[in-house]
Amino acid sequence: MKNNFYQTIFLLFCFYITHNIEAQETPPILKFSSTDYGAENQNWYISQDNNKNIYVANNDGLLSYNGSRWTLYPSANGSVTRTVKVVDDKIYTGSFMEFGYWQRNKYGHLTYISISDTIKNDLLEDEIIWNIKSQDNYIIFQSYDRIYFYDTIKKQLHYTTDKGNYYRIFKVNSKLYLQKLDGTISRLENGIEILIAKIPEELNIKYILNIFSINNALIVLTRTQGLFKIENKTLTKWHIPGDTFLNKVRVFRGIQLKDKSLVLGTISNGIIYLSDKGEIKNIINQSTGLSNNTVLNLFEDADGNVWLALDNGINCLNLKSFIKEYNDNYGDVGTTYASIVHHNFLYIGTNQGLFYKSLDSNKELKFINGTKGQVWSLHTYDNELFCGHNSGVFNIKNNKASLISNISGAWNFRPLPKQKNKILFGHYSGLAILHKQNNKWTLQNKLNGFEISSRFFEINNTKDIWVNHEHKGIYHLTLNDSLTGFNKITLFDEFKGKAAGLTKTNNHIIYANENGVFKLENKTQSFIKDSVLSALIPKKEYRSGKLIFDKRELLWSFNKNDIKYAQKGPLPNMVSIKSIPIENNWRKINSSFENIASLNNDNYILGKTNGYININLSKIESKSHQVFIDKIKVKEKETNYSDVNIYNKGDFKFKQSSVFFSYTTPNYNKYENTYYQYQLEDFDSDWSSWSQNSYTSYDKLSYGDYVFKVRSKIGNKISTNIATYTFTIQRPFYLSAIAIVSYVLLGLFLIFLTHKFYKRYYYKKHQKTLLENKQKMQLLEFKNEQEVIRLKNEKLNQEIESKNRELAISTMSIVKRNEVLRRIKKELKKDTGITNTKHPVFKLIDKNLNNVKDRKFFMEAFNNADKEFLTRAKELHPDLSANDLKFCAYLRLNLSSKEIAPLLNISVKSVEVRRSRLRKKMNLSRETNLIEHILSI
């Protein structure tokens, strides 16, 4: 019954602790699941090398992590790797019936060398190596029944055995200590066990988990009974403030950090973080951020991060970080939109209401009743706290809320200058005034004439109010004397932009958008760009124009890759701008709703989507870091990549011209992203843009010498080194020395052949030219002869035309002469009365009318003019008589019937008859013209 009572009390206590812890601020935690690292869930041990690479003993083997990539190396015999320890350049591991070390080869991969193989037959049955320590030039491997000493110089192994006594080995201040099942704790010196304490049997402590050195005393960690001091060769209880909790949990592992504080890992309660005085600084478990509550081992790395080997996963706690975070893992609090310190309480306004807690404690946030819903802002005035809420305005007193205005959506508050006990606040549909009367705040009135949402507004003096609207611009409002409305409203519509903001510093109203920061010039009532403050919002990193001026006179901005603040320098008008590398992907809050508030001294609360971030400016350190090339591969055509030596200069064949590089900077801070920039000399004209990708490749490079360079950046600090790799891509075979000599010889041979060919070619061409010239001369002679013939023909044609003209003239002369003779004959008969035709005169006339010589002359002339006509006409028409041919000749001269009649001494009618007869003899159709037919012959 009594045991049940204590169990109930313990369960209630654990519930209380868990309930409190849910609201704790914790250091940032990097989480790695089995999916992330590609091995089994369970992890046993963690270590780190000089390049800050992390090594984890996992059920599947050895895990290696360089800050960018996890790599799994299965154990030599396929068993669970239980422990790992890095000493110099070797990674020592122990597992079931196997221990040895890993070392990186020329490709950057780990290769395993077994030490236990040298005594394989001497190993104890089912022996497991659980722990590894180093001392001078020795590596000590510990199983439950044996301790192995490996001399790294002589490469010799010897051991000591104590069967069934269950060794536990510890190292404190460069000294080795042993604990056995018999309760003895000894210091190991030169292979000799020197007893330093005996565990009293009444304590019922079988195993101690670790030994620490605090204030020159040795402190022993137990599983369920807390911490003990070694005094006078026995254990005495070390009473500390954390005893109440320690006595109720089961501790599995514990380590002492460099600052002497302790971190204890439990079986089911996460970790306990103790100061060197035993005070509980923090308790972190699965409800507050760990991946798992069972912590199998812990390790502090070179940067003060504490790594947890969990039963399910791997976590890294950034204990030394300048950040603590509150994560609303269960959705009870929501997104932080406002925060403020008032009367030593921290108030957090979220989308789910207003919460508070004591500023000096790390307890849970408490909800203020009546404030459920969206909180937009928190403001103090005259030592009173006001809450801008979706439901209106609340006055917060003694952590209780009273509604003093039910105007929906109270955005923000500003006191009215020279108006005591009056506060102006912006809301969804304009502006309104709160008034304090009889020690009670009430709504005085809305301001008429302006009904635009007024989230960003500032007051320059008693009457000048400036309101920013991101889609419309900046409004300048002049308040009337009665404080009921406005005398004048002016819109500056050139100033607008997404997530633009408006704020006020000591003496200036400041507007900011993606184009920079602008100050209001009071004389000109215009906004002028401030080149110094514009550095707060780099254009390529713009996310929000919201600026916040805090009580410490720091001006804050919120960008994609960081948050910045401007502060006054040591000299007048000097401003310094500093960056905090908290990227938006960690804040994840809506644009222009970013918020930050000063807690005390250097501490600030920054709102985020599932809680808030506590920033300590004094702890921000700009640590140096290095970048390493960890893998290089080449590819031949379409085949897979093959590894190459990363330490020596590369010499690749031309077909291996596709090169892959991976590089890393071991950085394990959750809020610090690492960016890389690379350049391939003689290929890239400049450095690449900064990117989080930790690899790159170049395809189908031409032959030549190259130098690959890479550097990294964390925050604004660039790595102290530039990692380089020099390599050469050989000429292709067709451009090798042998090939070039062959090309030269082949070229000379081709020149010789070409010379012979051209000599022969030009000889043939010369002969051909001679032949062509000869043919041309013959052709020219032929053409000349043709030309002569043509000229002769032309001359003959001219002579024919001349004779034709003579013939025509002669014919016409005969026709005219005969006509004249007939008229004379007729006139003689008429005037003289001579009627006798035998009269000599008439005989003479008739003789000349029938002159055979004229006809003979005509025919000869006609034959000379057209020699072949009569012959051709006779061939075509054999029936033609001599008179018909003569008649055809007259027709060929194109003489009319009237002109032909006197020549033939017949009438015109007789000529027509002859025409008709001639057509019949020639067998011409009616459509054929007789003259045209004769002319065509």
Main pleated sheet: 5 strands, mixed
- First-to-last CA distance: 155 Å
Low-confidence stretches: 1-22
Shape: elongated
Rg over CA atoms: 59 Å
The DSSP helix count reads 12
Secondary-structure content class: alpha+beta
The amount of helix comes to 10-25%
**Number of beta strands:** 65
Average pLDDT value? Answer: 88
Strand content: 35-45%
Explain this structure:
There is one protein chain. This protein has about 950 residues and is an alpha+beta fold. Helix 10 crosses helix 11. Strands 59, 61, 63, 64 and 65 form a five-stranded mixed sheet that branches. The chain has a four-stranded antiparallel sheet with strand order 1-28-27-26. It has a four-stranded antiparallel sheet with strand order 2-3-4-5, with no helix packed on it. The termini are far apart.
Structure at a glance:
With 937 residues, this protein is α+β, with helices and mostly antiparallel strands.
Key traits:
about 950 residues, alpha+beta, 5-stranded mixed beta sheet, 4-stranded antiparallel beta sheet, 12 helices, 65 strands, about 40% strand, disordered N terminus
